[in-house]
Amino acid sequence: MVSKSSVKYIQSLQQKKFRDEYGVFVAEGPKVVPELVATQTFELIALYGTNQWLLEQEKSRMEISSGEIFEISQAELERMSGLKSPHSCLAIFRKKETIPPVPTDSLILMLDELQDPGNLGTIIRTADWFGVKQIICSPETADCYNPKVVQSTMASLGRVEVYYQDLRAWLAPRKDKILLCSSLQGVPLSDIEPAANQVLVIGNESKGVNASLLAIARELINIPKIGEAESLNAAVATGIMLSHLCKL
């Protein structure tokens, strides 16, 4: 049986201030948890699972190199979960040590004040699909350890490096980078030739990319509109742009 204090602690991790204080985050579900364990990117602190789920992992020989394992009931899982429909398991992982972004010759994705956790999670997953290994976020961007982000990434959080940094400060000494900013006033995406040293900036869902970044961009780019929709979801737009720019 899980103690009330443990349940309260796990529930507190839905909030950023407690994730930051304890240096951990929560992942839930039979798809996300085993895959995050398999990446070996994050140290496993504790794993909570129903009897049936734990037996299934034993049969599949899931390798767990650290952390405590607790068998719990479905009712206990529902008390500690942040999901509307919790299922089978929950895990607590230690966040990675914060380090400065390492310059790379491959395409880098930048997120400027992107605030929707669902969008961020989907973008991380999409970046993983297209082989983008680094995402640099402005400090105002949603927390990548937000439970909604973690769930949306489907374990891609363990394969894509996500950093938080002042974007202009990072770009300032790197004049060799080709800065591309998404903008409704930009040239069609098809006009841009993919190149290894490009940096793609996706802006805030409602305001777009900050003027200070637009001012230093090599190109402003957009996805040509054919139908009548007012705009594209930020995550969808990112996927379309990466599909073109990652053709190397």
Description:
This protein has 248 residues and is an alpha/beta fold. It has 2 domains: 4-94, Ribosomal protein L30/S12 (60s Ribosomal Protein L30, Chain: A), CATH 3.30.1330; 108-245, 3-Layer(aba) Sandwich (Alpha/beta knot), CATH 3.40.1280. 33% of the residues lie in helices and 21% in strands. It is built from 10 helices and 10 strands. The strands form 2 sheets. It has a 6-stranded parallel beta sheet with strand order 7-6-5-9-8-10, covered by helices on one side. The chain starts with a helix and ends with a helix. The model has no long low-confidence stretch (mean pLDDT 94).
Features of this protein?
248 residues; alpha/beta; 60s Ribosomal Protein L30, Chain: A; Alpha/beta knot; 6-stranded parallel sheet; 4-stranded mixed sheet
Helix-strand layout with pairing:
Elements lengths: L3 H9 L3 H7 L1 E5 L3 H8 L4 E6 L1 H10 L7 E4 L2 H7 L8 E6 L13 E4 L5 H13 L4 E4 L9 H7 L7 E4 L2 H5 L6 E11 L9 E5 L8 H4 L4 E4 L11 H12 L3
Helix pairs in contact: 6-7, 6-10
- Overall mean confidence score, pLDDT: 94
End-to-end C-alpha gap: 53 Å
Oligomer kind:
single chain
The number of distinct helices, counting runs of at least 4 residues, comes to 10
Return the CATH architecture of the largest domain. 3-Layer(aba) Sandwich
- Unreliable spans are none
CATH class of the largest domain: Alpha Beta
Name the helix and strand elements from N-terminus to C-terminus, one letter apiece.
HHEHEHEHEEHEHEHEEHEH
Number of strands: 10
Q: Domains counted in the coordinates: how many? A: 2
Task: Give the DSSP E fraction (strand runs of 2 or more residues).
Answer: 15-25%
Under CATH, the homologous superfamily of the largest domain reads SPOUT methyltransferase, trefoil knot domain
Based on secondary structure, the structural category is alpha/beta
| CATH topology annotation of the largest domain | Alpha/beta knot
Tell me about the largest β-sheet.
Answer: 6 strands, parallel
Widest sheet: strand order? 7-6-5-9-8-10
Global shape: elongated
- Rounded radius of gyration (Å): 20 Å
Helix fraction by DSSP (H/I, runs of at least 4): 25-40%
